[in-house]
Amino acid sequence: MNTPEAVVRDPADFPRRVLLAVSGLSPQIVTETLYALAVRGERPWIPTEIRLLTTARGAEHARLNLLSGDRWFERLRADYGLPPIRFDADCIEVIRDAAGAPLADIRSQADNDATADALTEAVRALTREPDCALHVSIAGGRKTMGYYLGYALSLFGRAQDRLSHVLVDEGFEGHPQFYYPSPTERVIHTLGPNPRPLDCQQAQVTLAEIPFVRLREGQPAALLAGSARFSEVVAALNRALAPPRLVIDVVDGRVEAGGQAVAMRPADLAFLLWFARRARAGLPGLRRPADGVPDADYARDYLVEYDRLQGRNARTDARYRNGMSKGDFDERRTRVNQALVDALGAPRHAAPYLIRGEGRPKEYRLDLPPNAIILRED
Predict the structure, then answer these.
(1) pLDDT band of 216, cuts 50, 70, 90
(2) pLDDT above 70 coverage of the chain, percent
(3) CB 32 within 8 A of CB 41
(4) Which of the chain's termini has less CB crowding within 10 Å, N or C?
(5) Helix/strand/coil (H/E/C) assignment for every residue in 38-50
């Protein structure tokens, strides 16, 4: 029986709609993009608010040109009868460096890192709200700003979110007096030694929507829920995409999965070590002990690994004196798997390292190739 696909809501139907953009010294990107979305589009998308991320110099340009003086933002709304849209000085966010000082420009590696983190956090925060549709424009600012903003949307974007670049006719593009195509004749002049008149009413502004790969489902839950540095998110994805590698340091009692340290108690690590050693030897999976029938062989093999880690104690000997019960087996397996999920942040990231059962009756194994398991015992 075919299962109907989930209905994807139109981004224009969401109660909160945010246009997020970056800019440098050309704040016209805001009005040009708003025009393309809300006026020119076949299916208008009118934001309920606009957020602009920029440098200290860029913020001053945006405030003076869009919100003060000729107030080009409000003029656009009035010219085309657009509803109220929240965009004021508080919506213009200045990117700050690691010490909290506003960035005047983006010149150094440290400036780039701070910009990447700020854009990543802005997108992450806005995409946490399920009733918000986000439209990201990468047309403004330095090239690195557009790159980081687009990459952040790829990391956190959902089905209702969009990415675009705005295209403007030659002559009007980058012109300090052009903000959007006017509904009536408005003359400006080209820049340079031989200026010629241009009618802003004739300008063509086109929105080019950019497809992007949505990687949100691959993100660890901790990065989706809290603040996340750009480098941390990328590192987490790279670990998830790398070939699986399980390292158990028997001497120090430590385990590492996919490059991530996993906190695990010795009793649970011994259980993982038992299955890891079987996987390296190419041995078959193990069935759970039957109800009320503890398995002496399981207890013996498990306790051998426990001895290698720290040595048994009287309590452990007493627990497994009659063998490993079904409850013992299930408890250890559950604890091992939960520790792996907690460390790696998401079940899909932990999946290669989990002790799982397959078949009927189920046989439990660590389904890793032998060369992906490293045991350090010297």
Answers:
(1) confident
(2) 94
(3) no
(4) N
(5) HHHCCCCCCCCEE
